[in-house]
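Notes to self, Glycine dehydrogenase (decarboxylating):
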Amino acid sequence: MTSTSTAFDVDAFGRRHIGTTPRDHEWMLAALGYDTLDALMDAAVPSAIRMHEVLDSAIPDAATEREALAELRALADANTVRTSMIGLGYSGTITPAVIQRNVLENPSWYTAYTPYQPEISQGRLEALINFQTMVTDLTGLDTANASMLDEGTAVVEGMLLARRASKAKTNRFVVDADALPQTHALLVSRAEAVGVELVVADLDETTDVAELGDHFGLFVQYPGASGRVWDPASVIAASKAQGALAVVAADLLALALITSPGELGADVAVGTSQRFGVPMGFGGPHAGYMAVRKGLERQLPGRLVGVSQDAAGHAAYRLSLQAREQHIRREKATSNICTAQVLLAVMASMYAVYHGPRGIRHIATRAAGHARLLAGWLEDAGLELVHDAYFDTIRVRVPGTAAEVVDRARELGIHLWQADDSTVQVAVDETTTASDLHTVARAFGGPDSRDFGWVAPLPTALPETLRRTTPYLEHPVFNTHQSETQMMRYLKTLADRDYALDRGMIPLGSCTMKLNAATEMQAVTWPEFANLHPFAPEADVVGSLGLVEQLESWLAEVTGYDTVSLQPNAGSQGELAGLLAIRGYHLANGDIERDVCLIPSSAHGTNAASAVLAGMRVVVVACDELGNVDLDDLRAKIAANAEHIAALMITYPSTHGVYEHDVKDITRAVHDAGGQVYIDGANLNALLGFARFGDVGGDVSHLNLHKTFCIPHGGGGPGVGPVAAKAHLAPFLPGHPMAQRTSHAGGVEHGGGPVSAAPYGSPSILPISWAYVRMMGAEGLKQATATAVLAANYVATRLRDHFPVLYTGENGLVAHECILDLRPLTAETGVTVDDVAKRLIDYGFHAPTMSFPVAGTLMVEPTESEDLAELDRFVEAMIQIRAEADAVGRGEWPAEDNPLRGAPHTAESVIAGEWTHPYTREQAVYPVHSLVRNKYWAPVRRIDQAYGDRNLVCACPPIEAFA
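result:
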């Protein structure tokens, strides 16, 4: 592999994905003192970990974009899309075209990152506060977060919240027997690891709570999985009276018509927003939600958007209460939720904005009326309903013939759900037509023809005592944008307030913000992938299962493992799944005392949080001055915990961006002590094609498909965090009771408990990573790795005379990212890492990762997708910022009034009023001449984070706040 001979074919996708050219490589390599990419990689990657050539590779040679799309089309055609009336938490929905085109298919929305730089994230932060307001309005509770991963994991988080907030001295949690089956499976899986005892109970208005015994929490499904609607208020009150917290999983659309959980006395409401315009997608991604009553807002897991003010006193959005987050609290964290489902939460919130309260109520009323109409037709045919009160789902008694009814419906193009041998469930949704209802009635033995024409749905079958009387969605944002023109302009306005990859480089270390190619994205909205129910019969989802199996096999090969589960729908959940597999392995071997997880001090916070949620104790291992795991300290910690070592979690290359030469010694030491090795795959973009986790001693790893494998970050989600493992851990990887198949890559079965609500996590976005691997091929993946390492070392080399590069490996090289140490600069000039980050906005950049893994530093990861001109633009911006800081240090500008401390500068700040600063307007907003025609203007000035935490506002503020 040389910089001169590796030229991609004109039709090859790799030359589009990789931003620098072979000629650029010559220039960049010369700056580093190397002749070829081969020579650079030989010097950077330790020879001890270099992989051998894979014979009989499962990864085919690189396909062109057209060829890959043709293969995806063949996989899609192998699926059969029927009308789904299964329900169970997944409903047909209509994505308004204006939202599909302007959000889901718009790189301004899908290529943005988590809004940790709020000044350049005001658009998606407003969309998320709309989401929070929508959820609080409908649930009748005080505060909602900015989304969860799915409904099942949201229920688990509700259980954990109840345990830490309740004063009850018990580990018992009462679970509604009418819970969704996938939710119940998740609760069983997650409760066992943290010592929670589940008590399943048939709940109704007559339940004697005293007979349930002491419990810290109560969980109610509302409406039930069976469709049953009942009033749980008395049960909730009795449970709370004995010290428990009430968690209610509520259907957001049903809440347009039935009494809200808050009015029923719930402390916590959870659920999914999928049916608000987000396709079923064979199970995800979908934005779960969580809302809490007043007093519990600091217990909320995940992200919370709030309102603060900027330096000019104007209202501005930002993430609130960040001290709650797992990356700060580490082993003291109460949740390991990291990736949210921001893109899907934006879609759901815009569905509410577009339809408004009247539209939402109309959709809910029509669905409920159609359910009532179908029930009437079935009762006319002599059939009996299981429940008389329901919203959109009915259960019908068909003694001994349930399977026949479901089979007949499938032949007629509709999926129903067989609850048991004598019961069939039918769920109506937004997409259901009167013709669909007639077809369902035929499947139950009704007449083949019916003179119904246009049929007005009947009144709902909801109890009068549970009819909703309180208003919702009253804020102007939900009552203004109901024409497509208004909606299109609103979405454009919000997008223009953000900085995403479609504007420029986002050099966030540890985040790998690379190209999300349009061809990779193309199949996501194909109905053959988007409109599948996750529990559809195996025969109807052959194409999606084939795609899953191929991707599993490719990921197993590139990581050196034997099997892969694609179920975890975030990197944090992949971590948890891997640690639960290790825990299950030790328990199966009778090693019940093994509960210590060794974690380096440099690790990402989710590592420690995941270990705690897997029932392990965290012991921190020191790092040396080069950023490597301190081998002596590791051996000392192993010796001190000799019989208790369960696992070591390390990141490779290290969180410091360095290839550790001693990684095999590290893994060997843990294995010799009887432990297992978990290698965090966050930095896999520095390894693909050169080394494999399984070859250096890893037993299990999670991968980030939203990093290395090109799934877009979507403003902070979706993510996919598959877990890959050696064969001995395969029986303990996530299984699922509703999965169409039990076998996975390597021909093995996964028998562990689920970690996500759907069997394959977020399969509707897996075509993205499938297409990336298919179009790059093994050699293209290797080329991408080498180019990413080249880009990082080029940036480090050009900047090291201005900012010390904190950690390097042998030969002074870094891996795919470098850490710039700003602490000396701060000591000399008073300019802080915050000042530099905000000043970069004035130069047209998103800042690198701030103060992670070391306070007072910037971690830069340019990726392979950026071109040389963009790399140079960033380098030159950083050099000029250094010069500005030096000017402050020399006293040319006051420490409290200079371009860095005043950054970012808005258009208003340099136009309105008298200019009193010691630097010029031009220096403020046009520090380099190229910005004159290509300026990104921050919509707000620097935001006061502390003010927002002291004055917590987490719902849509009145319009006057922005006057």
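- The domain at 527-775 is CATH 3.40.640.10 (Aspartate Aminotransferase; domain 2).
- The chain has a mean pLDDT of 95.
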